[in-house]
């Protein structure tokens, strides 16, 4: 039996419950592919899983991890994937209902695998799949953003917020992003943000001082607690996409559409699937990063599975914006 090293979560709790173990390498089955993992990002949802706060689809014991990049190790003969080919994968139950990326190998459905070709280092590519998928999906499927439009990002220094800013700027949009810390304004400008608004809880008036008629589109990443205020910053027939809840408020008690949604402003949401980031789009993004037209915000890189605990602890502390990435030798 072939074995690998993996981080296993057997019961909810502190980071000490993330245990490095020898684990069997899973055989592929029809329609699934095995990937040798080279790098993976560490995400808020994985912290939630570790704490035992995830939805019922998460079962334990489990190897966590909802995304990774690496190389095809074994693939079905009827797929277009070949051993050694560089690929990314994310979501689709990975690290939740089946074992995920905190390991040396992972087995996932072929349909959620994104082939790519780049000379960018693994620590850069490893930062991208989940946050670029969430950002790109929100901007396209959620907001249908077009060149020349104005975009407000509420929660701009989150990983998805930073990614959305650089993608939207590359698309030709004018980006306004919020931050609660004015010292992070330069970071936002470096990823393509034109206007920075310091978020003290209410930002609609400040946004309308910049865009008096209201923005064309808004990406809500902070949550339902501020959603009514975000909606007030959007023009009539503009659109707001609810994608995240950094403030941990996912619902509005006693929701009244007439008081929450301004007349004529549209509200939608985005949840995310790997297929919402097509291979041609991901490869174009990699080319833009390599050429310096788009920026990747990496908070810290950790070497080896031994770094997973530190990565989750640093992510929880929230002191350094950007993606926390684990790279495997």
Shape category: globular
The mean pLDDT is 95
Share in helix: 25-40%
Structural class of the secondary structure composition? alpha/beta
Number of strands: 15
Helices, by number, come to 10
**Secondary-structure element order, N to C:** EEEHEEEEHHEHEHEHEHEHEHEHE
Residue stretches low in confidence (pLDDT < 50, at least 5 long) are none
Radius of gyration: 20 Å
Question: Biggest sheet, in brief?
Answer: 7 strands, mixed
In oligomeric terms, what are we looking at?
single chain
Euclidean distance between termini CA atoms: 22 Å
Q: Per DSSP, what share of the residues sits in E-state strands of 2 or more residues? A: 25-35%
Could you characterize what this model shows?
There is one protein chain. It is built from ten helices and 15 strands. With 329 residues, it is an alpha/beta fold. Strands 3, 4, 5, 6, 7, 14 and 15 form a seven-stranded mixed sheet that branches. A six-stranded parallel sheet has the order 10-9-8-11-12-13, sandwiched between helices. A two-stranded antiparallel ribbon has the order 1-2. Strand 14, helix 10 and strand 15 form a beta-alpha-beta unit. The radius of gyration is 20 Å and the shape is globular. The two termini are 22 Å apart.
Write the layout of secondary structure elements.
Blueprint: E1 3-9, E2 18-24, E3 32-42, H1 44-51, E4 67-74, E5 86-90, E6 105-109, E7 113-115, H2 122-125, H3 129-142, E8 150-154, H4 159-171, E9 174-179, H5 185-190, E10 195-198, H6 204-210, E11 215-220, H7 227-232, E12 234-242, H8 257-260, E13 266-269, H9 279-290, E14 298-303, H10 308-317, E15 323-327
Parallel strand pairs: 8-9, 8-11, 9-10, 11-12, 12-13, 14-15
Antiparallel strand pairs: 1-2, 3-4, 3-6, 3-15, 4-5, 5-7
């Amino acid at each position: 039996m072939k074995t690998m090293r993996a981080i296993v979560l057997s019961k909810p709790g502190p980071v000490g419950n993330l245990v490095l173990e020898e684990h069997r390498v899973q055989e592929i089955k029809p329609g699934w592919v095995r990937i040798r993992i080279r790098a993976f990002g560490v995400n808020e949802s994985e912290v939630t899983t570790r704490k035992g706060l995830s939805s019922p689809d998460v079962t334990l014991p489990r190897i966590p991890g909802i995304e990774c990049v690496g190389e095809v190790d074994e693939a079905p003969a009827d797929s277009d994937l070949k051993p050694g080919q560089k690929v990314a994968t994310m979501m689709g139950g990975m690290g939740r209902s089946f074992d995920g990326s905190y390991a040396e190998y992972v087995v996932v459905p072929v349909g959620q695998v994104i082939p790519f070709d780049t000379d960018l280092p693994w620590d850069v590519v490893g930062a991208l799949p989940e946050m670029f998928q969430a950002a790109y999906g929100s901007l396209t499927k959620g907001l249908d953003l077009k060149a020349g439009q104005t975009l407000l990002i509420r929660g701009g220094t989150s990983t998805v917020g930073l990614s959305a800013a650089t993608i939207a700027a590359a698309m030709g949009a004018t980006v306004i992003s919020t931050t609660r810390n004015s010292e992070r304004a330069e970071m936002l400008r470096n990823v393509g943000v034109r206007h920075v608004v310091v978020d003290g809880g209410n930002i609609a008036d400040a946004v309308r001082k910049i865009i008096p008629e209201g923005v064309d589109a808004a990406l809500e990443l902070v949550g339902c607690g501020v959603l009514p205020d975000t909606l007030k910053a959007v023009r009539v027939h503009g659109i707001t996409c609810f994608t995240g809840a950094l403030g941990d408020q996912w619902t509005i008690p006693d929701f009244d559409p007439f008081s929450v949604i301004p007349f004529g402003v549209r509200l939608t949401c985005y949840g995310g699937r790997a297929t919402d980031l097509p291979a041609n789009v991901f490869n174009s993004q990699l080319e833009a990063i390599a050429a310096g037209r788009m920026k990747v915000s990496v908070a810290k890189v950790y070497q080896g599975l031994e770094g997973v605990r530190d990565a989750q602890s640093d992510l929880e502390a929230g002191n350094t914006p950007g993606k926390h990435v684990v790279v495997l030798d």
